[in-house]
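Me: I keep going back and forth on a fold encoding question. No explanation is needed for now; the record alone will do.

Assistant:
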Amino acid sequence: MDNHSKKVRSYNMSQIRSTDSKPETIVRKYLFSKGLRYRKNVKTLPGKPDIVLAKYKTIVFINGCFWHGHQNCKYFVMPKSNTEYWDKKISNNIARDRITYQKLSELGWNVIIVWECQLKKDKRENTLESLYYNILRNIKR
């Protein structure tokens, strides 16, 4: 049973963004401040990646812990209502992600996944620095 009315649930779901989320904005601002230039949500690549750094042949996905089923994460909790629907939905997301990452790797892209929980204030600085150095390792020679 849902804790919210249909109208409230509909409004809540409408506020969930597929692009330009807060975690994406944090990562993009950081990379831009470091002098890295990128394209966002490139429709011609599998999975419409959040950030594409062509010079570094690197793609960055910023995944929400809930929507992408982040295992062993305190921010991923399977809903107690309508569990069959949510289990199928999240399982499909995980499977689709796996296929997308594989396709991109086969095309020669380095794929980096940043989880929403890694951008919480206590972990953000280390995550962003690590991301930056992972990107720099892949510079075209």
In short: The chain has a mean pLDDT of 89. Residues 83-106 form the longest helix (24 residues). The first strand starts at residue 39 and ends at 40.
